[in-house]
Specification:
Length: 481
Amino acid sequence: MSSVPEQLKPIFDQLDKNTDSNIAKLAKAISFKAVSADESLRQECFKKADYIQSLLEELNCTDIQQFDLGEEKPGLPLPPVILARLGTSPTKKTVVVYAHMDVQPASIEDGWDTEPFVLHHDKEKGLLIGRGATDDTGPLLAWLNMIEAHQQLNKELPVNLIFCFETMEESGSIGLENLIKEQSQVSGYFYKTCSKIDAVAISDNYWLGTTTPALTYGLRGCNYYQIKVSGPKADLHSGVFGGCIAEPMVDLVQLLSTLVNSQGEILIPGVKEMVAPVTEEEKNIYKSIKYSIEEFNESSNSNTCLFDNKEDVLMHRWRMPSLSVHGIENAFSGPGAKTVIPATCTGKFSIRTVPHIDSAKLDALVIDHVNKEFAKLNSKNTMVCELIHDGAYWYSDPYNESFTAASKATELVWGQKPDLTREGGSIPITLTFEEQLKSSVVLIPCGRGNDGAHSINEKIDLENYVNGGKLLGSYLYYLAE
């Protein structure tokens, strides 16, 4: 760690002293099975929101509100979005902090080494293991740990903070976009005590690798589609009807094969023509990033990479579109043999979007392509291709005021300049914040590239959890300068 400025040194020391109590807070937060996608666990999302609100109350946050987002469907309420503020000084900048409280499904039967909702502290390796440790409960608590350290030392934060914590991010952030739009009006929550928002900070992503910290200035979007092929009114016996009837599964498999080839090339005409060309400035960013094919293979647990150099890997991961086939509904998937012809089957696929792909134009290209390919089959079945949901890509200036402050903070805490990265995944709400609050967004990762978010044995290194609070606090100090 670089030489720490005098105003930050006591904060850093206090965060070190609080390590055990901050681990205990993470253990408590992880114990809630807040899986937003599982309707049977919806109440756990509410309980976790109440716990996070209690922490905000202990930190003397004001105007804490749980916003009711209504129902996902009749009888299934949406968990709340928490908005809270800390500080209303007219002479300080105001920063919105976004994080999410919900997590992905997890079970010991999935292959976890320990119970996923019981925090396991591997002291030998310095790891904190549990669902949500890095995505996104650990980083959320890193913000609160940093604030607690300030208050224990009777130190004021250099900026005003507004917290926005949701509980449906892993299920599409249902209701959040409309809430942000409503509360971004002149009389809404975000502008009730300030004239403008100076920055939005998100820590819901990760370093590219395991040794070099990063800042993220771009995210791919995601358009999700389904192809539904329907034939007979009920499933049929292949011994009786096989070879005599148009089989929906056969049609579907042929349609899916027209979307992308084994080299990852999208086969839908007109898609690649929309992609923004690579500039020389962008090429130089990729050259300077410390990364290797070996690191990529380690993160994928395989040797199946389609490329032989880091530049091509990173470009296809971050700034080129990709098409992935995800699954087929109504297909037989259990063990053993089942000689059934499905009456209806639905294939799911997504396209990760990048600048300058227009979402509506992409939808038209996809649906037109699938319709034309189905017509070629001359099938007696019926077919519908449709968009299920979409989320826009996001791209920012990695050299603006907020990124510059985050870069200084990263170099201070980690002793090295951060890689400037983009992400292949999506955080759709990023663009909503940018447009509605008319403010820049910065993504400041706390965790490492091997944390295993959405996977088994999800973890955050203890060093990253502790340093996360130092990093986020330093960012606020540099932004306030």
